[in-house]
Structure formats: C-alpha cells, structure tokens
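Q: Got a minute? One more chain.
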Amino acid sequence: MKNLKRIMIILTCSTVLSCSSDDNSAKGYFPTNIELTDYTNSINNKSISISYNSNNRISEIILEDNNEIKTKQYSYTNGKITSVSNTGFLGGPDVRTFVYNASGILSSIVDETDGSTETYLINYDAPSNTYTLIDGTESSSVQLDESGNPYQYSFSYLTSNIVLTLDSNEEGVFKNVESQVALQFDLALFSGGELFYYFNQRQINHFQFGVQDFDVINNRDTNGNISSVIYNFVGGGRQIDLTYQKRNL
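A: Always. Here it is, folded:
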C-alpha cells in the first residue's frame, strides 16, 4: 500500500509539472480565416480557411468563392514544401511538386494534370535573393528580403512590377509562420491572387503596381494582430478581415 501511495504521489506530481509546463509554453497567433470583400464587385469576394500541422506549417488551405470550394493540401520534407494536392480548381495541376537542389534552393516546379507533366525551371540569383520561374519565352519573379519576405513581383509580359513596402518594425499577418518561397509560386505568381501577397511576416505599408499606388491601411486588435487590411485603389477598393488561433510555438 505504501508503494502504491508513493507511485500515486509521483504520478500526481508529474501530471502537475506537465500541465504547468504546457501552460507556460510560449504561444503565438496564427491566421486561420481570411475574408476578402470587394467594395465594387461582390463576385470577387473570397473566404479562405487555413490549417496547420504540428510544426505550425500550413497543411491545408480551403478557398471558397463564386466558383465553389477549392482545397490545397501541402506536404513537407525537411521543413520545406515538397508538394501540394489540389481539388476543386477549374484549371491548374492535380499535384504540384517542388524540387530543391543540394543547397535547399528551389530549382524547379513539376505540375501533374490528368496524367501529363510539365516542368518549370527556377533560376535563383543570390545577390538579389530573387527566384525566377521560366515558362517558355516568359518569366515570373519574386524578390525576397533577408528574412524571406516577398516585396517585389515582376512578370516579363507586364510593363510594371508589383512593389510592396514592408515595415521594418511592425509584424505582419503571418509573423509566426515560417516563410516558404514555394507558397509564393503556388499562390501568388501562379494564381495571380492578391490575397496571398499578405503571406508576409512584416506589415505591408504601401502597394504599387502601375497606376495603382497607395498606402495600405492596417488595423490591429487588442492582441496586436492585424485584424483588417484595407486598400483603396483607382476604380475601387477591397478589405481583408482576419481571424486568428492561439497556438504553442
């Protein structure tokens, strides 16, 4: 009986210590829902749900718009996105694979659609930290800062670049989400979706693209998270509203 009591005491102490450890673990906020409202054309409205794996990396994105529900599921190897499976999209690949060289630099993207494959080479320029995708005679590029945050997108078939001015002090929507250049190609360059320019660890203060040249309005909640983003441009305006989940870091 004495031994049983000792065991119970030890188990009780272990449980208390374990709970105390969990309660004291560092936590951070992760965006789980993004709602886009177009002030002038509701057909452009979108709702996006984001799920994370145990390593706080994006595991699934569900996008709902006027073309129903679309799903992206991400797989990782050694902390990098290696593939994404797509369902519900009217166009685009069933599976997109990201290939890295021995140094961990993204070197190509392979799209599989209805049994056929297409490969896009990626050129990386280290001095400017720029990745360029080659698609026949055309190219698309994303330039990153020293922390992997995108701040310039360029396209050979357009006369203007998309230039984001990042805040050096204020954190962004995805402040706790590890930067993945693969997301930029999968969601921004391939999809042309302005929502995904906000996959950024820094606050975006200014947006410039041709005649569109405006300050971005960032509103924060009581926890210091960006709760809404408003950008008023020539011919209209849009608002992004965000919901967060508190997770262990």
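A: The longest helix spans residues 2-24.
Q: Perfect, thanks.
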